[in-house]
Amino acid sequence: MRVYERRPEAARLRRRDLLRAVAGSLALSAVGGLLAACGGGTSVTPTPAMSAPSPTAAPTTAGSTNVGSSGRGEVVVYSWYQKWIKEDVIPAFEQETGITVKYLGAYASNDEWWAKLQAGESWDVFIPSTSYVIRAMAADLLTPLDLGQIPNYKNLLPEYQNLDYYVKEGKTYAVPFDRVFYALAYRTDVFSSPPDSWAITWDKTHAGQIALHDNAYSRVAYAALVIGDDPLRPTRWDEIRQKLIEQKALVKKYWKDYQNGMELFINKEAVVGQLTDGRVRMAQDLGAPVGWTVPKEGALIFIDTFAIPKTAKNVENAHKFIDFLLRPDIQLKQLRGMRYDAVNAAARQQLAPDELKRFEPPAGAKLILGDLAPAEVLQKASEIWNEVKLA
């Protein structure tokens, strides 16, 4: 199992050899669905590339820059993180650059933009999750980035720069910006200290008060962790199935919508379960006694990125938009607005110590990049989960 271990002094990332196994697979909808409604994704577990490309190693591909009403061209944006992009980013970018932004709106899952690109539709900047970046690189659906035109790339945490997930033949095709923890959530008025194991979600003491994500891969992955199996490449499928059947009798609700999952904790219907770190922070800001943690077995994380599709018509302005998005003041708005964990060192440095602490996982936490689960594992997880729900 490959993990990203958060050490107190700095994060260090282990190299992965799974990437090519994931690339090109047609069965990634299970991972795409994980991030569809969380308001951002996203998504994690980085590793520096074997040989990091120079900032200008990936030249911008040809693409005309259409002239908008401002006379400085336009850029067409398609994304999730809609509140942040639409309300904070676009008005400021247009005012500062004179470039007109055409906003296509938000998609509900990675599968939506994937289908549109396959059909030849065009836009300039979007936010794919890492698993789909790997898939799109293999299908030749992305434009290589010229990092020389994205100087704010240097603002990323060092361990999130030059990741081999996004590099093909020496060219970089996406830049990470945000990570999403699929964390263990708990009521702080029930637990005096954070639970230290996912086994708490099998504890009969909390029967009828456990809330979990209705997602095949995350359910299988956490059962695998509890029994000591590899969550990225499980082998003990019969044990996982039985473990999930045992848990089912204790669960109040398997939630599909992230808002609903959060409300279960806010309304004190759930005392422990799974929720994203961003949603826990939202609940806390609404006054709910909720916390999140990474148990000793580890937790899934997912990385969201900025990328330019191959069909882009405004490649130069797309680079300008991505560079703007990576500015610390703009990333700070995401941190405080969407409440997901930006991997932007310059933005994090602007947070007060108590504010930054809300975004930090426990020291030594094992963070497992769910984006790297192979297609055959996602397919098998779906089969097992269907069997569990019918049991």
Structure characterization notes:
The protein has 391 residues and is an alpha/beta fold. The strands form three sheets. Strands 1, 2, 8, 9, 10, 11, 12, 13, 14 and 15 form a ten-stranded mixed beta sheet that branches. It is 34% helix and 18% strand.
Structural class: alpha/beta
Total E-strand runs: 15
Provide the β-strand percentage band: 15-25%
The helix count comes to 14
Shape: globular
| Distance N to C terminus | 29 Å
Radius of gyration, taken over Cα atoms and rounded to an integer in Å: 20 Å
- What integer is the average pLDDT? 85
The low-confidence runs, each spanning 5 or more residues with pLDDT under 50, are 1-65
The ordered H/E elements are EEHHEHEHEHEEEEHHEHEHEEHHEHHEH
Secondary structure blueprint with pairings:
Blueprint: E1 4-6, E2 11-13, H1 19-22, H2 29-34, E3 74-79, H3 82-97, E4 100-106, H4 110-118, E5 125-126, H5 130-138, E6 167-168, E7 171-172, E8 175-187, E9 210-213, H6 216-227, H7 237-248, E10 251-255, H8 258-266, E11 272-276, H9 277-285, E12 290-293, E13 299-306, H10 315-325, H11 328-337, E14 341-342, H12 345-348, H13 353-357, E15 366-369, H14 375-390
Parallel strand pairs: 3-4, 3-5, 9-10, 9-11, 13-15
Antiparallel strand pairs: 1-2, 1-15, 6-7, 8-11, 8-12, 8-13, 8-14
Helix pairs in contact: 3-11, 6-7, 6-14, 7-14, 8-9
List keywords for this structure.
disordered N terminus; alpha/beta; 14 helices; 34% helix; 391 residues; globular; 18% strand; ten-stranded mixed beta sheet
At a glance:
The chain has 391 residues and is an alpha/beta fold. The protein has 14 helices and 15 strands.
